[in-house]
Design brief:
This protein has about 1000 residues and is an alpha/beta fold. Strand 24, helix 16 and strand 25 form a beta-alpha-beta unit. The longest helix has about 60 residues, at about 220-280. It holds the Pfam family LRR_9. This is Leucine rich repeat containing 9. Keywords: Leucine-rich repeat, Repeat.
């Protein structure tokens, strides 16, 4: 009766049976298996078994089938440690668990169950075949990473919709067969996307079969490789275009800033000079002596106070203009960062996520603008002085996977008899709503990107974050913006700033929403699906006003007309699959009084020349007494120096004030060996070469000149205070290096109002460790200690190499524009633990090194990295390419955003095929160096000072060249590229 053995003899013969099959014969529980102690194969099909049990006496079992048996879980296998094949398909299993001891398992079939998460397989390192078809799995994650022996994987009939999930399978080194849409199952949503097969074949080059198709041929692999490389090149060019646009915007902003700052700077200069003259009037005119004239002294004090008040007003205006410039630059940079992220998202999704920027000729653009304008009410913003909104940018979101999910869910609802919604009237339940972001708890940028890629979180996820258990939406701009407005006002109040342009550019996600059957709820009533099981959404009314009909985007095809629109509402939708993000709208608020000018082209009501302030300045400048200053000193000699200093011999002069002249050179100053205090502000100095080797000089004021560099300062060992405000210094790194070397006793330094790029305060303090005051702010002990600690960590040492190096032998297959060193650092942990004992030749194993943004000033301690292939040193303070002579296997090198002026130091790197030195100080392409790089196929030298393409003809194998934002002035240079075409 069982395997040819009669029921009567089963007790006697059971001990010899190694294989047992039970089909459709009424076996509700797994009992009596102790009769078969030698059982190796057990097959149970079509029973009503809920649990696996009774296998304690079958330790030899190596193959088990329990299929079509209504199993609800995996259990009872703890004694079957020799199990190699396990088939549990066509059951009701919801969770993969209790398989930790089955370390010999090679085949596992769990298809056609109710599994939603891949888990519990960590110990199965011998697993070769895994069938999880026809479950409800949405994510793969890193759950299969330990299963390094896996060769055959079937995930057909699940809900995987993202290419990123498939990319994670590339870490399985032995995977040869993959099924995501085999003929017996429905395809995963990801299989319906464009370029699905290309994406999979590229990321898994070892794959032999995909969805029953043979993909092992060389032609298939090469076609996938070629397609991906073309896409990477295309998106690399688009990203660089966005970066070039930012550079142009930055230049426009800088020019605008210069224009706006011209008047305030002139006023500050005039007022400061007069204030200095009045404060030192006894030295301006020897015939004037106010010490015996109290009335004159009182007038001077009153005038000086008035001058200080005017200076305070103009300085505040300057700071406001600079702050607005920095805010506009930050907004432009933020916009560029979003654009780059959008492009990278398109690349990673192989075009299945597209973000299209609209213009006024696009019908959907106009509809979106009308939608937002119709949902703006000036009365809601009157308290903030906001009179309107200006739409800057509209981006249409096209996410194939999310759209398919939305349409499938909607069709299934319409097909269901329980909903009671007919296909004719369902459009009346479609709305275009704004998403209510949580500004305090989430990163706005990360949340936006997550929504664009994966859609909105589930109701359970929102509830886990401490929010209400549904997707929060609104049909009103003011309701949507309320959290951001409140947060910004709180920050402004904490900073004691009520700036009228306090709100940055706003962004609104517009989503198509099927609200379905909905019902109102009261304020304070919790939002939870368990409390409202029969509706798709709930809402709270914000007011009861009847408003003009809301105009929806034309793409929604919903009715519009002069009817009363719904009240302002907060909507809460329970099913995230019924919310489809469709547009992002960037806008700014218009206020009645624009106090601060903004981006070029923006309108402003503020006059650029505040005539009333000029009049007030003149009144203060003309206040009594108007002292007559001495004639300007166009040159110096010993007699003039003695006269100005009121001394008899040069060796007696310890204090010298030469402000307000037209001096550009003071070579005679070297004779004043006793000089301690020197003021040369308000002159014409461009360099300070004459101020050197003055051993007693303690104070130097060079403010309000035209200094372009501090080079020339030498041997000022006792200098304690230095004022270089209001000059034209641009090279912060070089100038601080001069000070560190030649002013070792410097205590106070004021560098404000120079056009150099703002250097982080801690970086400056780390370079000049003796400072007690920087830019008129006291240096706290903790701040100084942090700066020293930061500076100490900026050298390439053993700890640095251990933390930032990798030992991978191959570049990861990834649709990414990152360099190999950056990508490996992102995807893989460091190979060395903190307490791990290092091998003597550990540095020789390093293949990748990523030292971006480590404040490194010099490339040292790299001589033992003989197998280094990929290196990145972006965003540091490197001025010379050196220390790489031993890294002869280097293939990729990135040195973006440093201070490099020449390519010398690369001549020995004959294997180099990719070089990036964007954002440096290169003035030419060094032909002698490029001639030594025969394999260089990629060269990027954007944002430098290159004036000619001469030398590029020496790069014999270049395929990609990026040289935008340089100083090439003639189109004839393009002929240097003829040999490359």
């Amino acid at each position: 009766m069982v395997n040819g053995v009669s029921y009567e003899k089963i007790a006697q013969e059971g001990s010899n049976i190694s294989s047992l099959e039970i089909f459709f014969s009424g076996f509700p529980r797994m009992v009596g298996l102790s009769i078969f102690p030698r059982l190796c194969q057990l097959t149970i099909v079509g029973q009503n078994i809920k649990y696996i049990e009774g296998l304690e006496c079958c330790p030899l079992l190596w193959e088990l089938w329990v299929v079509q048996c209504h199993l609800t879980g995996i259990s009872g296998l703890q004694n079957c440690v020799q199990l190699e094949k396990l088939y549990l398909y066509d059951n009701q299993i919801c969770e993969i668990k209790n398989l930790e001891l089955q370390v010999n398992l090679e085949v596992l079939w769990l298809n056609n169950n109710c599994i939603s998460h891949i888990q519990g397989l960590n110990t199965l390192q011998n697993l070769k075949e895994l069938n999880l078809a026809d479950n409800i799995i949405e994510k793969i994650g890193h759950s299969l990473d330990p299963n390094v022996s896996l060769q055959n994987l079937n995930l057909s009939g699940n809900k995987i919709s993202s290419f990123k999930e498939l990319t994670l399978l590339a870490c399985l080194p032995n995977l040869r067969v993959l099924a995501l849409k085999d003929p017996t199952s429905t395809p995963n949503p990801v299989c319906l996307l464009c370029n699905y097969a290309t994406h999979v074949v590229y990321h898994m080059p070892g794959l032999q079969r995909l969805d029953t198709y043979d993909v092992s041929s060389k032609q298939v692999k090469e076609a996938a490789e070629s397609t991906v490389m073309k896409k990477i090149m295309y998106y690399n060019m688009r990203v660089r275009t966005a970066q070039r646009n930012l550079a142009e915007t930055r230049f426009s902003l800088m020019e605008r800033k210069k224009t706006l700052l011209q008047l305030p700077e002139e006023c500050v200069r005039t007022l400061s000079h007069t204030h200095l003259v009045e404060g030192s009037s006894d030295r301006c005119d020897p015939t004037t002596d106010i010490s015996h004239n109290p009335a004159m002294e009182s007038k001077i004090l009153i005038k000086m106070e008035a001058l200080r008040e005017r200076l305070t007003i103009w300085t505040r205006r300057l700071d406001e203009l600079v702050s607005c410039y920095e805010r506009d630059l930050a907004q432009a940079t933020n916009m560029m960062a979003y654009t780059v992220q959008f492009l990278l998202m398109e690349l990673e999704s192989v075009g299945n996520i597209r973000l299209e920027e609209g213009c006024s000729t696009d019908p959907w653009f106009t509809s979106c603008c009308d939608l937002l304008l119709s949902r703006f009410s000036q009365s809601d913003y009157r308290v903030h002085g906001i009179t309107g909104i200006k739409i800057d940018r509209v981006i249409r979101i096209y996410n194939s996977a999310l759209r398919l999910r939305f349409e499938d869910k909607l069709h299934s609802l319409l097909a269901s008899e329980d909903t009671g919604i007919s296909s004719q009237n369902y459009r009346r339940r479609l709305e275009h709503l704004f998403y209510l972001a949580e500004t305090e708890k989430n990163s706005e940028k990360e949340e936006l990107l997550c929504i664009l890629e994966e859609g909105f979180k589930t109701a359970e996820q929102y509830k886990a974050l401490g929010r209400e258990g549904a997707i929060p939406l609104s049909n009103s701009l003011s309701v949507t913006e309320q959290p951001r407005m409140e947060q910004t006002l709180r920050l402004a109040s904490h900073c004691n700033s009520m700036d009228t342009c306090f709100l940055p550019v706003g962004q609104i996600i517009v989503s198509k929403v099927f609200v379905g059957h909905s019902m109102p709820i009261r304020e304070g009533e919790p939002v939870d699906r368990s409390s409202h099981p029969r509706v798709c959404s709930v809402y709270r009314n914000v007011d009861t006003k009847c408003r003009t009909a809301v105009r929806r985007p034309r793409s929604s095809k919903t009715n519009t007309g002069p009817e009363c629109s719904p009240r302002r509402r907060r909507w809460f939708v329970f099913d995230h699959e019924l919310v489809l993000p469709e547009y992002i709208i960037y806008f700014e608020y218009i206020t009645g009084n624009h106090e601060i000018p903004a981006l070029p082209g923006r309108s402003t009501d503020r006059q650029e020349a505040p005539s009333n302030d000029i009049i007030l300045d003149k009144e203060v400048l003309n206040m009594e007494p108007v002292l007559k200053a001495l004639p300007k000193l166009l040159s110096l000699d010993d007699k003039i120096l003695l006269n100005v200093a009121r001394a008899n011999v040069l060796s007696q002069i310890t204090v010298l004030n030469l402000h307000g002249n037209s001096l550009s050179k003071i070579k005679e100053i070297s004779h004043l060996t006793a000089l301690r205090h020197l003021t040369i502000c308000f002159n014409e100095f461009r360099r300070l070469d004459d101020i050197s080797h003055m051993p007693n000089l303690e104070f130097l004021d060079v403010s309000y000149n035209h200094l372009v560099t501090l080079e020339g300062l030498r041997g000022l060992g006792q200098l304690k205070e230095l004022d270089v405000r209001w000059n034209k210094l641009t090279k912060a790194r070089e100038d601080t290096a001069v000070l560190r070397k030649h002013t070792p006793a410097l205590l106070k330094l004021d560098t404000r109002y120079n056009p150099w790029n703002r250097v982080p305060r801690l970086t400056m303090l780390g370079r000049l460790t003796t400072l007690t005051h920087l830019d008129d702010v006291v240096v706290a002990e903790e701040e100084a200690a942090d700066a020293v600690h930061m500076a100490a960590g900026s050298k390439i040492n053993e700890a640095c190499l251990l933390a930032h190096s990798r030992t991978n032998s191959d570049r990861p297959r990834s649709l990414s524009l990152l360099s190999t060193a950056q990508l490996l650092g992102l995807l893989n942990p460091a190979p060395w633990g903190l307490s791990q004992e290092l091998e003597p030749d550990w540095t020789a194993k390093i293949t990748a090194l990523n030292l971006d943004s480590q404040r490194i000033s010099k490339l040292i301690n790299l001589n033992k990295l003989v197998n280094l292939r990929w290196a990145s040193f972006n965003d540091n303070d490197i001025s010379k390419v050196e220390g790489l002579d031993s890294c002869l296997k280097l293939e990729e090198l990135s040195l973006n955003n440093n201070s490099i002026s020449t390519l010398s130091g690369l001549s020995k790197l004959h294997c180099l095929n990719k070089l990036s030195v964007d954002g440096n100080q290169l003035s030419s392409l060094d032909a002698s160096v490029l001639d030594q790089l025969p394999n260089l196929s990629f060269l990027s030298v954007e944002n430098n000072r290159i004036s000619s393409l001469h030398g590029i003809q020496r790069v014999r194998s270049v395929l990609e060249l990026y040289i935008g934002n340089n100083e090439i002035s003639t189109s004839r240079d393009i002929y240097y590229l003829k040999a490359r075409v």
